[in-house]
Amino acid sequence: MQKLTRFSVLAAMIVLAVLLSACVAQPESAAGTASEADAMEEEVVEITWLQWWVNEWGPDNHAQLIADFEAQNPNIKVTVVDVPWPEMAGKLQAAAAGGSESYDLFGTESTWIAGLTKQGFIEDLGPWLENDPEFAAKLTPTTPMNLLGETRGLCLYLIPYQFAYNVDIFEEKGLEPPTNWDEFVAVLEALRDEESNSYGMSMPLQDGGFLLLRYFNFRLAQEGGQMLDADGNVAFNSAEGVAAMQWWKDLYDKDLVVPGSFGEDQALMLEFVASGQTAAIIDGPFIWTKAKQIDPEIRMAYAPAWTHNTGGYSWACSGMGIAANSPHKEEAWEFFKYIYSDAVSLKMTQTVSLLWATNAAVDSLADSEDPMLRHVPAFANQDPESNILFAPLPEASKLIDAFQQAFQQVLAGEKDAQTALDEAAAVWQAELDAAK
Amino acid sequence: MREKGTPPAASSATGEEVTAGKGIESGSVRARRVPWRMMNGYFFVGPAILFFLFVSVFPLLRTLQMSLVDVEAGVPKFVGIRHYTDLVQDPWFWNSLRNVLVFTISSVILHISIGMGLALLLNEEWFNTTLRNFMRGLLILPWVFSTASSGLMWTLLYHPFGLLNYMWVGLLNQEAPIEFLAKPGLAMASVVAVNTWKSYPFYMIIILGGLQAIPAEIYEAAKVDGANAWKRFWHVTLPQLRPILIAISTIDIITTVGHVDLIRMLTRGGPLRSTETVAYYIYKTALLDGNLGYGAAVSTLMLIMLAILIIIYLRVLSQGGDAGETSF
């Protein structure tokens, strides 16, 4: 009897709690018929855009972009959820894991695509592009972010990595921008001053993706190597890969970059450049816009295109995806069409030095006077076969971790380049085989 | 009015007087009232039980369930104990376990010893009470900083261009700056130092509270018996603080093992994964890589290990207590 009573009381309490929470969760359903205001709200669809670009593009510029879209599409309201880049991957993965319907579209890096696909969070955009050939024709061949034959996102802007420098410091010191790798080292030697403990460049190695794209892939492309071969198998542990790795090891040992590379991140590197503590950097074109957020007067430029064994360059992109569980995919696609439109492409390329991943933007660079972007056509075209575009990979984070480990081990003198690259390659190949 | 020789009236939940032990009528009243009296208790503990179920038991069971599942294209697939067998063979898991042991043991020792030392100082009679109160406020200051701001501040302090290296190279004329966060052994020590700086005030305050609760008569008696300062500390202060020290060291172990934010801010587990603790490994695997099943398996294993560690720790410590005292 007592057991029965206890059970009844507990059951009654749980039912009561559920009923109470239900009452709290849906106050509107009890309110009776919908008001006129509700009806108006139903006509305007709100899409939520999770991304990290507000500061990168400039808050005013960004707000204007949204305002223009809403003016053109009065039935769609865009709500932006701006997250600092370092938190973005975690936020996206958490949303994916929880099956969140909070976001309709989002910014993404190639390295995050695999995890999001695994969670079923990211829409296959292939059918959308097939149904909209006019829109698809506006995009460059490298715009689709393909993983295992499916388009899981579209590159929003393309990023070549090249030596960028502070124009004022170079003018002050009477230095010319380097035109090849030997001159690059010579410039760093000229900028190194032991008395004032100053360096020409910092080389952050805390982030695996960062060191892969900016350092290893750049030199690998110019050595004539590739990350993966035509069959999708690992190729970075080739002779060219070893030479690329060894080159960075030699540079690191020359004490020409700011000490503490292993513990340095992008934010710190940006501070050094923007504050004039270092005069150069290897990064994407957006670095100038970012530096201007700290010092609006800073002037930066890219060095002319380099050639070693080849004229290839390391390329990556940041892109956008649509949430597979979004109830507003049509509206999100409308926003895609707007953001990749010729007008927006040209505006963004001109105002924030970002190479939009559209044909209109690429064509516009032919007569560009932008000190960063005017060199980009040469990076792209001087040896297209040798370019390395970082594409989405299965288990990308794990692979990048393995590569970072190898890179750091070589620079720390713990392993030789061939051994470290072979070990990383074994991890990569196992994951690639599993994905196949 | 109660009749002479009858038991006192019991008070029911409704405040009615229920007369027990007299004939059939009073017996039936008792039978009806007892469950209601019991229900009172259930209503009082009910919210706490519900809260416990929702915030502890449910997430725990959910994590366990997730650890037995893999997700492919959003579809969960039962994989049994595969994640656990993978985990045992995962060298990075064992690396993170080794790191968290170093991180936790050194942090806890430093937290408690520095907290204890400063609490003893602040508990003494100072020549100036205002100065003592000012010092109390000053010493609590690091606790006020958020972990994010502490991490950022120390990243800048540790950097080759930071204040510490400015003094090292500029004032002490050393050749090269110290790469605090860039050398594997030094990076762990640097993270432990920041964790100590950030957390010692909490332990200092708790210990100070414990010290102030120790009756002065005990110290006076010890003095009369000829105990010097060290003996008074060893034979009076420490035994009196024993329950507090056990409690705070247990809390410290649990919180230190779970640290992700500080490591995320300072080193991201590097260099060469030398500061990658189990909690950070879980964060990276589950949230950054999207391998929730594997991350859940690491979490479950970590929970079991931590529970065993805490049980052993408490058992060992409680063995040294006074007779009948379990301390915690």
List the helices and strands and how they pair.
The complex is a heterodimer of chains A (436) and B (328).
Chain A: H1 2-25, H2 36-43, E1 45-51, H3 54-57, H4 59-72, E2 76-82, H5 85-97, E3 105-109, H6 110-118, H7 126-130, H8 133-136, E4 144-147, E5 150-160, E6 162-166, H9 167-173, H10 181-191, H11 208-223, H12 239-253, H13 266-274, E7 280-283, H14 286-294, E8 300-302, E9 314-322, H15 329-339, H16 342-352, E10 355-356, H17 359-364, H18 376-381, E11 388-389, H19 396-411, H20 417-435
Parallel strand pairs in A: 1-2, 1-3, 9-11
Antiparallel strand pairs in A: 3-9, 4-5, 5-9, 5-10, 6-7, 6-8
Chain B: E1 10-11, E2 17-18, H1 23-67, E3 69-72, E4 75-78, H2 82-88, H3 91-123, H4 129-144, H5 147-158, H6 163-171, H7 184-212, H8 216-224, H9 229-257, H10 261-266, H11 278-288, H12 292-319
Antiparallel strand pairs in B: 1-2, 3-4
Could you please describe the fold and organization of this structure?
The complex is a heterodimer of chains A (436) and B (328). Chain A is built from 20 helices and 11 strands. With 436 residues, chain A is α/β, with parallel strands linked by helices. Chain A has 2 domains: 167 residues, Periplasmic binding protein-like II (D-Maltodextrin-Binding Protein, domain 2); 151 residues, D-Maltodextrin-Binding Protein, domain 2, CATH 3.40.190. In chain A, the strands form 2 sheets. In chain A, strands 1, 2, 3, 4, 5, 9, 10 and 11 form an 8-stranded mixed beta sheet that branches. In chain A, strands 7-6-8 form a 3-stranded antiparallel beta sheet, sandwiched between helices. In chain A, helix 11 packs across helix 12, helix 13 crosses helix 14 and helix 19 packs antiparallel against helix 20. Chain B is mostly helical and 328 residues long. Chain B has a two-stranded antiparallel sheet with strand order 1-2. Chain B has a two-stranded antiparallel ribbon with strand order 3-4. The chains are: A alpha/beta (436), B mainly alpha (328). At the A-B interface, helix 1, helix 5, helix 6 and helix 19 of A face helix 1, helix 5 and helix 11 of B.
